[in-house]
Design brief:
Number of helices: 6
CATH topology of the largest domain: Rossmann fold
Helix content: 10-25%
CATH class of the largest domain: Alpha Beta
Number of strands: 13
Number of domains: 2
Strand order of the largest sheet: 4-5-6-13-8-11
Order of helices and strands: HEHHEHEHEHEEEEEEEEE
Oligomer: single chain
Largest sheet: 6 strands, mixed
Radius of gyration: 19 Å
Shape: globular
CATH superfamily of the largest domain: Thiamin pyrophosphokinase, catalytic domain
């Protein structure tokens, strides 16, 4: 449900190499109606295709892309790009593609599937977050069905609206629910300590304390306001649970 909502609210979709296999295996039944319109280079947001699961591009070193997956998406006009560079991962290759889109007017970059697999790949997601967040004005969010995360830049303060990016849908089977972040959340000093950390809008606010591994780390905190603020001396990861909430008129 989280993936479906994120997909339908996005302008442009990129699969990072082997992710295309999972997309096809999970969604092909929704893509097969004969009325489907193949994509082309001039289409960024096609409303008809946006309701199905056809990426605009598949990009990576392509070592994980199956032959049947490639043939299937090529038949639908999907652009497939190979980048053999082994000093960058497929997620980085996908973000390089985003930089080539003109005009780059996206409000934010959502990376789905960042959690729940191998630990080293999860860490690679955070490495990408740290290295690319400044490029996109810290508008990159990592998502899975259960967790979201972004990088808070130093100094600030930074305001975050809760819920942040997944609102209710006007169509589909999930139209009677809202998917949102929180209330459980955390601030993780990944990579370096925060000499000072101040927050508002949390159940347990920080008031200038140092946050570091081996010391104080704010986990299992709770969001209590619709707008939270974080002011940190160094970059820090804000993470929140992702929950499905029934809308009031659906509660019996």
């Amino acid at each position: 449900m989280v993936f479906d909502r994120l997909w339908k609210s996005s302008q442009y979709h990129i699969c990072a190499d082997g992710g295309a296999n999972r997309l096809m295996d999970s969604t092909r039944e929704y893509n097969d109606p004969p009325t489907i319109t193949p994509l082309n280079d001039n289409i960024i947001n096609n409303n008809d295709n946006n309701m199905r699961y056809i990426p605009n591009c598949i990009r990576g070193d392509l070592d994980s892309l199956r032959d049947d997956t490639r043939a299937y998406f090529e038949s639908l006009g999907v652009e497939i790009e190979q980048d053999p560079d082994q000093d960058s991962n497929d997620l980085t290759k996908a973000l390089h593609k985003v930089m080539t889109i003109s005009p780059p007017t996206f409000e934010q970059i959502i990376i789905y599937g960042a959690f729940g697999g191998r630990f080293d790949q999860e860490m690679a997601s955070f490495q990408t977050l740290y290295s690319w967040a400044p490029t996109f004005q810290h508008r990159i969010w990592l998502y899975s069905d259960a967790t979201s995360a972004c990088l808070i830049p130093p100094n600030g303060p930074v305001e975050i609206q809760i819920p942040h990016s997944i609102s209710s849908s006007d169509d589909g089977d999930d139209k009677n629910v809202k998917i949102r972040e929180g209330p459980t959340c955390g601030l993780i000093p990944l990579g370096c300590s925060c000499t000072t950390l101040r927050t508002t809008g949390f159940k347990w606010n920080l008031n200038g304390e140092e946050s570091s591994f081996g010391g104080l780390v704010s986990t299992s905190n709770h969001i209590i306001d619709e707008v939270i603020t974080v002011e940190a001396s160094h970059p820090i990861v804000f993470t929140a649970e992702v929950v499905v909430v029934p809308l009031p008129n659906t509660v019996k």
